[in-house]
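Q: Predict the assembly, please.
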Amino acid sequence: MTLVATRPEAAVRRRRRLRPGPRITLGFLVGPSLLLALWSVASVTGLLDPRFLSAPWTVVTTAAELIESGRLQDNLLASVRRVLLGLAFGIPLGTLLALVSGLSRWGEAVIDGPVQIKRAVPALALMPLLILWLGIGEGMKVTVIALGVFVPIYVHTHNGLRSIDSRYVELAETVGLGRGAFVRKVVLPGALPGFLLGMRFAVTTAWLYLVVAELINSTTGIGYMMDLARTYGQTDVILVGIVLYGLLGLFSDAGVRLVERRALSWRRTLAG
Amino acid sequence: MATDTRRLIRVEALTRRYGARTILDALDLEIEPGEFVALLGQSGSGKSTLLRALAGLDGDVAGDGLVEVPAQVSVVFQDARLLPWQRVLDNVVLGLDGAAARGRESLAEVGLAGRERAWPNELSGGEQQRVALARSLVREPRLLLADEPFGALDALTRVKMHVLLRRLVEQHRPAVLLVTHDVDEAIALADRVLVLDHGRIAAEQRLDGGRRTTEIRAELLRALGVTGEERT
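A: Predicted assembly structure:
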């Protein structure tokens, strides 16, 4: 009897068919690159009127000019500051509400309803009230972002908390964990996957609400820069803003995913 | 015979009901310190319900009766039930402060020295169950409750776990209540085997070497409702 030491290539490949396959280096850039290529081809062939949409290279040179004059940096800084402040208030708020609501039935009874109502109301519908209450200054803009950010954090953290296996709760009871240790060892790590998923939505949501806030009576920020460009019909500047928003959203998401992969290294899932 | 002072566990007239179904029916049970008791029974006979009552995990189940158990009780479940986000050593000393050194010793006892920093998912099923054993024994329990702890393991691993459990129990001397559906496992490990049927103890066998195990095995199988050559 002979043993076959080398497995035929085809057999090896067939065994993998149900898994997504090996990780692709910089895989998250493939899709965006394709879009960029399509845009370039359309501009070169004249399929795309520059008055309607400027070519990618025009956007690049415009961006270079904006950087040279310092306008881009100033506006970017103002926008980033708003987003960071909004996240700084929104994330703890969402996490705290999710913890209270997830750990006690009374907390859920009090908190969950209003949050779901807030979720159902479009953000723009709240703007008139917020402007009346807070004016049109930075406070209003940060509040708009924070109110947008806390919802996905709350929803996903709460869901993560509630889906912690009850067997682990039982285990915590048998080894006599106290309330504090239970939260630290079981609840928080158990809800972390949900929280991080919420974070991914939160960072992209933050940029979304930033646009809403900045297009209304702003004198700094990327949104202001774009709104001004609209007045003068500068599609290239508008595009610089759009690309910037896109890049910021993309990189924030990639950042959270990086944290996710490190923080959840104990998980062996399809993402592997 | 057990005297009052020798008794570690006392259960009297224990009744547990799920809706209209009576799972435990006025059950009496005593276990001495250091005694290894195996609890056999068919599915639905109330084995796990009794174990959960002793572990204090049935606060939401209706019933009455007296349960006296020592303060230090450890539970081993059928699944290893390790927190997947805690490393192996942290799982062992879960809820214990400054017990890392003892935890390491305990892991060495179950043959897992050097795996302290591993994640539970990186271990095999048998290894995970050994971590669960270490987690139970590091607490120096006076009573070890085990709910079919080897039920999910393959036959070879199970035999190895039997040897390990016997050795550990001899070293730490807790009383053990092992719930199982495997007659041979019960005979291999226990000092006394109980058969639970319809929420009552239907048969009892002592394994003090006086009788042949084939005879005991046959009687236990009969008590479980298995007759002749048929085996479940």
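Residues 84-140 of chain B form one domain. Chain B has two domains: 1-72+145-232, 84-140.
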